[in-house]
Amino acid sequence: MYISSGELAKRFKVSIRTIRYYDEIGLVRPSKLGEGGKRFYSAEDCLILEKVILLKSLDLPLDEIKRIIKDQSTETILLAHKSYLEEQLFNIKTSIAHTTSLLHILNLEGTIHWEDLISLIVQPEKNKSWSSFFSIEEQEKLHQSLPKLEKDNLSTKKWINLVKRIELCIQEDTSPGSEQAKLIIEDIEILSEETFQGDQNLMTKFWEVRRSQESSNELNLYPIKQEIIDFIEEAYAIIQGQ
Length: 242
Known about the structure:
By secondary structure, the chain is mainly α. It folds into three domains: 3-72, Multidrug-efflux Transporter Regulator, Chain: A, Domain 2; 84-116; 128-241, no CATH class. Helices cover 67% and strands 3% of the residues. It contains twelve helices and three strands; from the N terminus they run E-H-H-E-E-H-H-H-H-H-H-H-H-H-H. It has helices at 5-12, 16-24, 43-56, 62-71, 74-109, 114-118, 136-145, 154-171, 179-196, 200-211, 213-218, 226-241, and strands spanning 3-4, 32-33, 39-41. Strand 2 (32-33) and strand 3 form a beta hairpin. The model is unreliable at 121-127 (pLDDT under 50).
């Protein structure tokens, strides 16, 4: 059973000009010619066009597509397309995670700098390995429990709101010895207990890293402003001295 070039173009949503061009370059040729040179395509011809359309989605040049169709099986072509789709899916997930991080930064800081937007395209390099600071077991615990800016979950939102409450205290010149500051410290301890699951040693080690702008940058962690760190430490000191 044969179909005309017009029917072929309609079925695969390509132009008649494209169908004719593929015939000219020997990529998809009709199995039968009718009166006046009218082209008719078989089921096998349709399959070849399907392969061409699929391979074109991989941004391959037509001469390369022609070679692949000639030399490769349908399974090989489908596996190549599957690999391409998986790569695209990974890139999309990475972009979503990074954009979520920037939205959280915007929520925290009220602005996004150009270098942050550029990093949507060029991912920042991690300067130092986590193994320089933590054991393998500690890294696994932190990976599972730490709030992540690229995640839009409850734990991340809790920590963001906590940071914003501290920033509000600083803006309003609220004393680290105030009742409000005491409640913030209590919330930090509650969240820390949830995050570090009672591992005081790991919590202390991680806080030492977070206190250092340099160490935070080396591990590609969101940098906590020094004034926030100072507020927390002063509030802790006041509570411990009471």
